[in-house]
Amino acid sequence: MHAQKLIHPSAVASLNAHDLARLRALLPIRHLNDTEFTAIADHVEVEACAPGRELFRSGRDDAWIFYLLDGALTLTAANGASFAVTAGSLEAQHPLSPTTKARTLARAKTPARVVRLPASYLLAQPTGLALMGVDVAEVTDAEFDHRLLFAIYDALCEDRLALPSLPAAVRIHALVNGEREGINELAYALRGMFISSNPHCADLMRLAWRHATEIGALCYVIARRVTEQNPEQAMLAGLVHELGVTVLLAELPKHPALLADSGTLQVVMRELKHQVTAMILRAWEFPESVVEATFAAEHWTRPSASSPDLCDTLLLAHWHAPTADLPWADPRPSQCPVLTGLAPAGLDEFGRLRCVTEVGDELAKLRALLGGV
């Protein structure tokens, strides 16, 4: 992250102990060790925002990283589309910083409290630590090299990740309306995005595409037979929920050490795939309901809606899908919480949906239709 003069006109205050603990759990901050976090905490500020107040704007505030602690914000992207982020949501675990591709303006939707800190101190590790006077030789992580994780975050916040454009042949209205013809067009176009000239990345791309078609097929069956969602739109959500993986895998050859470090690679993919997917889908002007569903695709502790929704459909699809060979899959619980709200008659003796276990041929045909292997 390039050094910039930090200018932000507002009254600010220091974080209290409770707020510091909440900040400590956010991404990628939670990967800092105690020495690193203590150094950064000295530069953190918290701000209370009244509804309607502008929080940040691209260009003016690029030197800052922002997090939402309380309330809700309305974020506006470069294409003019707006969406809301609420404190405590999955999206609020990530920085809400301005980027030209995802969010250029933020306003408080409700009374809100926001944390900001200098981006150069957090993202450009170990340079950021040196700027704060920390001896970088003293900060190591036994589980994985988190400097690689921060390098990817830095590329994300600086718009250096190459986000794909919506293929010209794909008709967006057909996708939004869940038309099968439009989805077939997208599936054909998407398959060409899951490629790489790097042999290791090419293998991972193939795994990701096979997983996407598996989830797409399962979403279709589950939506039609269980959750009563639009089956085509559910299939669409399943098909695009891994798009962020293609961007992250395309970035990996620039970081050879990350390719060689399976533990760090797993963390990077798990923690950033949903955020990058959301950036792509919003740039393509997909419905926010699809964006929210892909963000929650593996959020196992998410409270179920009063009636099953698109998020539940994606969760059920993931719980029934094979993931043993997918290195970035989130750990799957022994029981799927969404299933507890469904009629027992719809489950087999193993607690799985009968509609999934009984339609193997239909799932195989759907995977073939989508171009899966």
Structural commentary:
With 373 residues, this protein is α+β, with helices and mostly antiparallel strands. It has two domains: 126 residues, Sandwich (Jelly Rolls); 198 residues, Orthogonal Bundle (Hypothetical protein af1432). Helix content is 43%, strand content 10%. It is built from 16 helices and seven strands. The strands form two sheets. The protein has a four-stranded antiparallel sheet, with no helix packed on it. A three-stranded antiparallel sheet has the order 1-7-3. A hairpin with a 5-residue loop joins strand 4 and strand 5. Helix 8 crosses helix 16, helix 12 runs antiparallel to helix 13 and helix 13 runs parallel beside helix 14. The protein is globular. 42% of the residues are buried.
Give a concise summary.
It contains 16 helices and seven strands. By secondary structure, it is an alpha+beta fold.
